[in-house]
Design goal:
Pfam families: GntR, UTRA. GO terms for molecular function: DNA binding; DNA-binding transcription factor activity. InterPro entries: Bact_HTH_transcr_reg, Chorismate_lyase_/UTRA_dom_sf, Tscrpt_reg_HTH_GntR, UTRA, WH-like_DNA-bd_sf, WH_DNA-bd_sf. The protein has about 240 residues and is an alpha+beta fold. Helix content is about 30%, strand content about 35%. The strands form 3 sheets. It has a 6-stranded antiparallel β-sheet. The longest helix has 14 residues. Bound molecules: 2-acetamido-2-deoxy-6-O-phosphono-alpha-D-glucopyranose. The site of 2-acetamido-2-deoxy-6-O-phosphono-alpha-D-glucopyranose has 15 residues, from helix 4, strand 6, helix 7, strand 8 and strand 9. The site of 2-acetamido-2-deoxy-6-O-phosphono-alpha-D-glucopyranose (16G) has 15 residues, from helix 4, strand 6, helix 7, strand 8 and strand 9.
C-alpha cells in the first residue's frame, strides 16, 4: 500500500490510504485506529511520518483524538446542497434520517426593531419566537431561533412546529414559499450553544442566517441557525 520509491510523500500515501478505508466503510465511525507505533511497524516507516498523516486526518475531520485513548473514526458529515430551499425535515428525510425537534422556548413576543424591519411589520408587532434544537436520529445537529409574524401565520403552536413549520405553511395554510437569502459564517460555540448541541464550548460552528419570503416577496421568517461544523458541510455547484 505504501510505495517508498514513489515521489509522493509517504505521509500523504498513508493519509490517502486511511481516508480510502474510511470512505469505503472498512473503518467505521467510532472505531479506533491502530496506534502511531502500530502503523509505523506495519509499514516500516517513522512515527513522525505517521503522526503527520494522522494530524492531517484530524484537521480535515475524518478522525478525532481522545486524550490518552487514541484516535477514532469520526461520523461522516452531512452534505447539504445550497441549491434548493428546503426545510430541516425534508433534508433529513431525504437522507433516511429521522428528524425531531426539542423546544427550548416558544412564545409570542413584541418584535424588536431589527426583526420588525426584516419581517416588514411594525416595531413591537406580535411575532412568534421559537428556539428549537433540530435532531437527526436523536443527534443534535442545529440550534435554530426563528421569528415569524403572528399576524401572517395564524395558529402556529409548539406541537405543529415540532413536526414541520414549512409543512404547516404549505399544506395547512396553503401559502407558497418563494425564495430565501442566506448567509453562512464561521464561529465558535458559546456555552449555551455547546450545551444544546452536545459539543464542547468553543467548538467550531456554522452560523447561518436565513430570510425566507413567500411568493410575492412577503417576509415569512427570520432564522438564526447554529450548525455543528463537525457534522455539516455545505455543497454548491458552480457554472462558468
Ligand atoms: C431549515 C431552515 C429554516 C426553516 C426550517 C424549517 C436553514 C439554515 N434553515 O432549518 O429556515 O425554518 O428548515 O424546518 O436551512 P421544518 O419545516 O422542519 O420546521
Amino acid at each position: 500500500m505504501i510505495n517508498k520509491n514513489s515521489p509522493i510523500p509517504i505521509y500523504y500515501q498513508l493519509e490517502e490510504a486511511i481516508k480510502d478505508r474510511i470512505e469505503k466503510g472498512e473503518l467505521k465511525p467510532g472505531e479506533a485506529l491502530p496506534s502511531e507505533r502500530e502503523y509505523a511497524e506495519m509499514y516500516n516507516i517513522s512515527r513522525m511520518t505517521v503522526r503527520q498523516a494522522i494530524t492531517q486526518l484530524v484537521n480535515s475531520g475524518y478522525i478525532y483524538r481522545l486524550q490518552g485513548k487514541g484516535t477514532f473514526v469520526a461520523e461522516r458529515k452531512i452534505e447539504q446542497p445550497l441549491t434548493g430551499l428546503t426545510s430541516f425535515t425534508e433534508d433529513m428525510e431525504a437522507r433516511g434520517l429521522t428528524p425531531a425537534s426539542q423546544f427550548i422556548s416558544f412564545s409570542i413576543i413584541p418584535a424588536s426593531q431589527a426583526i420588525a424591519s426584516q419581517l416588514s411589520i411594525q416595531e413591537y408587532g406580535p411575532v412568534y419566537e421559537m428556539k428549537r434544537v433540530r435532531l437527526a436520529d436523536d443527534v443534535p445537529m442545529a440550534l435554530e431561533t426563528t421569528y415569524i409574524s403572528a399576524n401572517l401565520v395564524k395558529g402556529l403552536t409548539e406541537e405543529i412546529a415540532s413536526r414541520s413549520f414549512y409543512a404547516y405553511i404549505e399544506e395547512h395554510l396553503k401559502l407558497k414559499i418563494g425564495h430565501a437569502s442566506q448567509q453562512i459564517e464561521a464561529a465558535s460555540a458559546d456555552s449555551a450553544e455547546a450545551l444544546h448541541l452536545k459539543i464542547k464550548k468553543g467548538s467550531p460552528i456554522l452560523l447561518i442566517q436565513r430570510n425566507t419570503f413567500l411568493e410575492g416577496d412577503v417576509p415569512l421568517e427570520v432564522v438564526k441557525s447554529v450548525y455543528r461544523a463537525d457534522r455539516y458541510k455545505f455543497m454548491i455547484n458552480m457554472k462558468r
